[in-house]
Amino acid sequence: MRGADAALGAAGLAGFLALWEAVPRLGLIEDEYFPPVSRVADALATELADDTFWTALGDTLTGWAAGLLIAVTAGILTGVVVAVVPYLREATSSTIEFLRPIPSVALIPLAVLLYGTELRSVLLLVVYASFWQILIQTLYGVQDVDPVAEETARSYGFGTWARVRYLLWPTALPYVMTGVRLAAAVALILTVTAELVIGAPGLGRRILVAQTSQAVPEMYALVVVTGLLGLLINVGARTVERRALAWHQSVRGEVAV
Fold first, then answer.
1. Among the listed residues 35, 5, 1, 11, the one whose alpha carbon sits nearest the alpha carbon of residue 21
2. CB 186: neighbour CB atoms within 10 A?
3. Which of 136, 153, 233 is CA-nearest to residue 191?
4. Is the pLDDT higher at 106 or at 252?
5. pLDDT for the residue 257
6. How far is CA 59 from each of CA 64, 118, 180, rounded to the nearest angstrom?
7. Integer CA distances (angstroms), 224 to 64, 230, 256, in order
8. 3-state secondary structure the chain
9. Rounded to an integer, what distance in angstroms lies between the CA atom of residue 70 and that of residue 74?
10. CB 175 within 8 A of CB 76
11. Is the pLDDT of residue 254 over 70?
12. Burial 95-111 (b: 16+ CB within 10 A, else e)
């Protein structure tokens, strides 16, 4: 089954690339604005041979990884504390619901005023967007704790941190891993967006420079790189999720299928 899925995926990709090559060649879209995939591939090869490309890629990965790490740490700790401390969930629910829907891009002017085009501007946007993914999933996971199991733990004299370790955390972990996977994708989106809009160092700024200088094939090549980067991050996050939840019924069922 997996071999068939891989073959279908490869066939779909080949069809997409063939369509991309054919559309500008047939004149359906001007190749000045939408170059064929062969020209984009040549531009990508040129980019890969350029040291400044790898520097930009490193800047993007640094902003993504640092922002995601901060968001994951803060989101998990905040979620557990809010869930464990009595009445804190009710006291903070209205604040969370007010702050969570604010688009991170709306904070770009604030980030520029505070930090200019430095890495800290990127981190502000990435952390803000990713934090809510982790926090909300952590809170949902804590709410899913079996009341009977919780009462049993209390009757056996488990303290607060023992309940967190042996009851709350195993229950919340599948939710947390889902939040991490979602946050990883969101963090990449906000990293590239911040580089595009703010001009912080990275792939986003390199895309902007290519666009303003009319280097269209190079621009598409860099866009392809960001897409491949997102694909690798998603695959990596799913791999970590499966390893962390190897004991969980959902992952065991997936492996069995």
1. 35
2. 20
3. 233
4. 106
5. 45
6. 9, 11, 21
7. 17, 10, 34
8. CHHHHHHHHHHHHHHHHHHHHHHHHCCCCCCCCCCCHHHHHHHHHHHHCCHHHHHHHHHHHHHHHHHHHHHHHHHHHHHHHHHHCCCHHHHHHHHHHHHCCCCHHHHHHHHHHHHCCCHHHHHHHHHHHHHHHHHHHHHHHHHCCCHHHHHHHHHCCCCHHHHHHHHHHHHHHHHHHHHHHHHHHHHHHHHHHHHHHHCCCCHHHHHHHHHHCCCHHHHHHHHHHHHHHHHHHHHHHHHHHHHHCCCCHHHHHHHHC
9. 6
10. no
11. no
12. eeeeeeeeebeebbeeb
- Which residue has 């280097």 as its token pair? 215
Global pTM exceeds 0.85? yes
The encoded tokens of residue 247 equal 């004991």
Which tokens sit at 68?
Answer: 């995601």
What pLDDT, on a 0 to 100 scale, did the predictor assign at position 255?
A: 46
Pick the closest to residue 35 from 25, 45, 44, 50 (CA basis): 25
Polymer length of the chain: 257
Contact (CB, 8 A) for 121 and 112? yes
